[in-house]
Amino acid sequence: MEFITIEAFSEERFTERKSLFIGRALPVSSEEEAREFIDEIKEKHKDATHNVYAFSIENRITRMSDDGEPSGTAGRPVLEAILQKKLTNVCVVVTRYFGGILLGAGGLIRAYRKAAELCLNNASIIIVKKIPVYRVTVCYEHWSRVLKLAATLGLPQKEPQYLQEVTGYFGVIPELEEKFLREVIDLSSGQAKIQKEDEMLVKYKEGKYLPV
User: Which residues form the Impact N-terminal domain (predicted)?
Assistant: First the structure.
């Protein structure tokens, strides 16, 4: 599994004919998280005229709300801004404070889309992948060699366990699986115990894979 999303919260605002538009985007992993974000913004901006939202979760769930604006003029353009960038696991909420001048249907569509685009353009875009995790158990003598190999290959890892031997947990992208397994065997003189575990989500940023 692989998808494109944003790395962190992003916010941008602008004024259109005296109406203030505030666009906010947040990476989310479930519909529940998206709803919590929406409720948080609504609570924060109870006095706003509208709190329009849209979200996409792993390309399977998409939701949107015009929140009182004319049908199709608010939630739809926000969702389209998300989908045009091929983003998923993203929720965008656009808050509007009415300035007294009507924008018309076309003006609303352009304004809500602009608010969504601005906050998404300001966000750091990352690629997220689900990759297998290998559990590697070696003696302390060989552990530093395994760590050096993982660092050289740029492998993300979970917290190791230090008992009679050391057990490390390494995320390995498919292209590096054969090389990693072969070299772990070589570095440990064939003594390493290796087992494929569950999977982990990692983000690709600046040429490296990092745990999400």
Answer: 17-119
